[in-house]
Design goal:
- This protein has 161 residues and is an alpha+beta fold.
- The protein has a single domain, classed as SspB-like (SH3 type barrels), CATH 2.30.30.
- Helix content is 25%, strand content 29%.
- It is built from four helices and eight strands, in the order αβαββββββααβ.
């Protein structure tokens, strides 16, 4: 079998991270219309992630944040985004590189993406409960939608070794 010199799997993953970047950019420019809201899961110890130490301690592997009603200062760069969220009534700035993302969902339209981690292929730790770390007070009415989104896995495009 010939080597995949093009690495289509990486190109697809990069393109899908661009979908997240574009969605966040639209939210930063125009707000979140209707019932749109984002669940963003990321590796807390990935290079470039800048979050408070107590959040890394509480979520040593992965963390899910919710962008819905209470978020501030959403800024999108080519390789990362930053946002301020409230944790226990304390506003905290977060900076998250797109490479650190492991999942993205907009349950209002049943859309979701799951990203493979390049650093390790460890299984999810289970510490990514959206109810426990998101800034929104009304996650309860979005919980029913969260499980119905379609997740796109990139495994079928990866080269088997």
């Amino acid at each position: 079998m010939a080597d995949d010199l093009f690495r289509y799997d990486l190109m697809v993953e990069t393109a899908l991270r661009g979908v997240v970047r574009d969605a966040l950019r639209r939210a930063a420019e125009r707000g979140l219309p209707g019932n749109h809201h984002f669940y963003i899961t990321f590796k807390t110890r990935a290079p470039g992630v800048n979050i408070p130490a107590y959040l890394v301690e509480r979520y040593p592997d992965e963390m899910t944040i919710v962008l819905q009603f209470q978020f501030w200062d959403l800024e999108i760069l080519e390789d990362q985004f930053s946002v301020t969220l409230s944790f226990n009534d304390v506003r905290e700035p977060l900076t998250i590189p797109f490479e650190a993302l492991s999942g993205f969902a907009d349950p209002s339209v049943q859309f979701g993406l799951q990203f493979q981690q390049t650093a390790s292929d460890d299984a999810p730790s289970g510490d990514d409960d959206p109810d426990s770390d998101g800034p929104s007070d009304d996650d309860s009415d979005s919980d029913d939608d969260a499980g119905t989104g379609e997740v796109v896995s990139l495994d079928q495009f990866r080269k088997k070794k």
